[in-house]
């Protein structure tokens, strides 16, 4: 506060109270310096999680449900708690390896990094966060070379007649129960004969 008015607000989450208390003391000491620049101070300690949250909040284009879910999921990982300026390609690689270690398929890991790339690419020009897009690009390149990530393969399997029959019965039943629902049975038949 300055002259009774709030001029700067900042928050951060910690696992332990002692860590939070130490951070508060350091931040307050930094901010009482005569030449403290609040905006620069805030950006210099911004985490990847801060950038992700800003991206979610300020994205004017409607993000799909999957992208939003993926970005919110990334917030739960250690990478999101790292200060932007400290994140290098090896951190993105370790993140990808952590995802793969949970049993996630390489294609899904690639999707996570792709969605993260949307945030990283605009964080510096939009908000001044010290995220290096090249570090993510390098991390993705190494992850691909190590087989941690890969693009999804082409699908060659076609549904059986029995599977198609069950799908059509399901959607026709749903249309009877909910007449306002999308005409999925018609859409399926159209897709089969037009593609």
Q: What does it look like?
A:
- The protein has 195 residues and is mostly helical.
- It is 61% helix and 0% strand.
- The chain contains nine helices and no strands.
- The chain has helices at residues 17-31, 38-44, 48-58, 65-74, 89-101, 106-127, 133-145, 161-177, 184-194.
- It is elongated and about 75 Å long.
- It starts with 16 loop residues before the first helix and ends with a helix.
Compact description:
With 195 residues, this protein is mainly α. The chain has helices spanning 17-31, 38-44, 48-58, 65-74, 89-101, 106-127, 133-145, 161-177, 184-194. The chain has nine helices and no strands.
Number of beta-strand segments = 0
Count of alpha/pi helices: 9
Order of helices and strands: HHHHHHHHH
Quaternary structure classification: single chain
What best-fitting shape do the alpha-carbon axes yield?
elongated
Biggest sheet, in brief?
none
Strand content: under 5%
Q: Share of helix among residues?
A: 55-70%
Average pLDDT, rounded to a whole number, is: 85
Question: Low-confidence parts, pLDDT < 50 over ≥5 residues?
Answer: 37-41
Q: Whole-number radius of gyration?
A: 23 Å
Distance between the termini: 64 Å
Structural class call reads mainly alpha
Task: Sum up the structure in keywords.
195 residues, mainly alpha, 9 helices
SSE blueprint:
Layout: H1 17-31, H2 38-44, H3 48-58, H4 65-74, H5 89-101, H6 106-127, H7 133-145, H8 161-177, H9 184-194
Helix pairs in contact: 3-4, 3-6, 5-6, 5-7, 6-7
């Amino acid at each position: 506060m300055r002259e009774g008015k709030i001029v700067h607000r900042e928050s951060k989450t910690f696992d332990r109270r002692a860590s939070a208390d130490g951070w508060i003391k350091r931040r307050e000491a930094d901010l009482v310096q005569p030449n403290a620049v609040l905006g620069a101070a805030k950006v210099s300690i911004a985490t990847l999680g801060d950038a992700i949250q800003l991206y979610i909040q300020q994205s004017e284009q409607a993000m799909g449900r999957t992208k939003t879910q993926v970005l919110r999921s990334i917030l739960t990982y250690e990478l999101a708690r790292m200060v932007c300026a400290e994140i290098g390609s090896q951190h993105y690689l370790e993140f990808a390896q952590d995802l793969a270690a949970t049993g996630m398929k390489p294609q899904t890991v690639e999707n996570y990094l792709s969605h993260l790339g949307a945030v990283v690419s605009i964080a510096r020009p939009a908000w001044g966060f010290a995220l290096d897009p090249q570090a993510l690009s390098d991390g993705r390149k190494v992850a691909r070379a190590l087989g941690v990530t890969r693009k999804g393969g082409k699908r060659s399997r076609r549904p059986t007649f029995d599977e198609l029959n069950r799908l059509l019965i399901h959607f026709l039943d749903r249309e009877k129960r909910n007449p306002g629902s999308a005409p999925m049975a018609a859409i399926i038949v159209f897709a089969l004969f037009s593609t």
